[in-house]
Amino acid sequence: xxxxxxxxxxxxxxxxxxxxxxxxxxxxxxxxxxxxxxxxxxxxxxxxxxxxxxxxxxxxxxxxxxxxxxxxxxxxxxxxxxxxxxxxxxxxxxxxxxxxxxxxxxxxxxxxxxxxxxxxxxxxxxxxxxxxxxxxxxx
Length: 139
What we know:
Blueprint: H1 2-28, E1 38-40, E2 44-51, E3 56-64, E4 72-77, E5 82-86, E6 96-103, E7 109-119, E8 125-135
Parallel strand pairs: 2-8
Antiparallel strand pairs: 1-3, 3-6, 4-7, 5-6, 7-8
């Protein structure tokens, strides 16, 4: 009886091991080599000196260099003073898309803000930066 239980345990363990190896093959099909991928023209934009009270906007352009459609699910500025918009439809491999960031230049002084882009890329997110200096508006 002990031999039968030992044999059954051995067979069951072998099946679990074989199933686990097959699961790894399935996981590899979702590997980064078959994912979408950002290739940004720039990831940081410097506005230089801007006037207080006048919002400024820049557009970040990217190409999907991956092998599957790139889908942006969310874009969020680091504070309420930064509003972001983005290409909503899937971007096919080799095609371009955009993320725009508008900074409301209300506070005086230097600024350095970020925009977090969430998409179906390796790591799940990418970060863009805007910076500059808000000067008093000349009248």
